Sequence to fold (238 residues):
Amino acid sequence: MSKKINTKLTKLIKYYSLINHNLIFNNKAINRYAQKNLGSPLNLVKKLEILKNEILEIKNCKLKENATKIVFSDGNPKSKIMIIGEGPGANEDLEGLPFVGRAGQLLDKMLHAINLNRNNVYITNVVNYRPPENRRPTDQEIERYLPFLKKHIEIINPKIVLLLGSTAMNAIINGDDVISKVRGKWYKISINKIKPYFIVSFHPAYLLRQPDQKKLSWVDLKMIRDKIKNLSIKIEKI
Ligand code: URA
Fold:
């Protein structure tokens, strides 16, 4: 190769190394829409709709047979804070929304105390149909709904999950410990492909019966408030 061609080539290589020539000379079209939309609200809504339809298609379920309608969720699906209760009661069954009865009113007050509300958290339950006579869901029922709950958590992809009461605690944090031992601590638990922080606290229905436990509930709420700050979670002020 002549010296002249060699110099030209060196210059060209130098030039290409300065620019991203792959982008210029790649003859494959760039798909600007691929992957980027995965976390978009539209996608989120679609995934939640698919999950809801999967639950609606459940067969041979005593809960479903006795309930008026599905209670899927309430709140903001884009929220990084998720709250999980036990299961719908009579009011929830009528309205199709979680935590709308007396326990729900207390939950709203608890959220308000740490500057949260239903517009900036996402709420669901371990089971999506009201258990007859407001009984606790059985272990088999919890097991049946658990894959849906896990999918639900994965779709929302929260950073913090508040488990209200022993049913939610037992569903996610296995073990037979009582709430008073488990509450007030952070747990990092893998749920399918994600690993949020979980905290257990008293169910608002229990707090209505045992108001002296509100002191400890307030400790847990303050832990959530601090964690939101430490993790720099943006709270929509709606
Ligand atoms: N209790 C729950 O655990 N969930 C509700 O939705 C209402 C009451």
